[in-house]
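User: quick one, fold this
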Amino acid sequence: MKRLFLNLLLILLLPSFSGAQLIDITDSTIKHDKAERPCITVDLEAGPKALKGAWRDFIKDEYGVKLRGFGFLANKDLLEAEKVLIEAISDKEMNFYTYFDEKKDKTQMSVFASLGYDIYVNPGDYPREYRAMRAIVDKFAGEYVPRYYQQQVEESEELVSSLEKEIKNLENDISGNEKDIEKNLKEIDKLKKENIDLSSSLSEKEKRLREVQNLLKEKQKKLKTAKKELQ
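Assistant:
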């Protein structure tokens, strides 16, 4: 029972979705090796640990590159791969970096790369490579965000179902235990109120999931356009 209430509390405390931008990918800079470097930044509503694992797996599965800094006994903010070939970006070896920064209810992910000492991929000198790197971030976010919200919806649905069962069990107990009738009635009122709040949260998440799915379609169109430009 305590575990159920803890899960309910976590769901009810999730940030409000109204008016928030779903996937915000921007051009920015990050300090690395004592200087500001150009990077591609995206803010995602996920914990840093889960996001690091998803990004590491995505880069390995899609491009055959293993990022160091996260895994067994390792959980660094900066993941990196040195002297690797990512043909989707360039036919030259590069150092590929991703920095994760936890910000309130979001995690900011900054992706950047260098082709040599003090030679960083940037939109001015390496526009094709920079667009390709941005397309990779765009593709990852487009796949990760809908999957993240789908999981949120499924977890909320499970909690609603569990709560309904708790209410049903208490209602059944009333008929067989007159001594605890008043206590059970108060408990039912409390559970019903929490169920209303949770159902409202679930509706918001389902709405957000639909918005994310529509946005994903737009992102896929943009990705196709970017690929054509790179060719």
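User: anything notable?
Assistant: Residues 156 and 202 are 6 Å apart (CA to CA).
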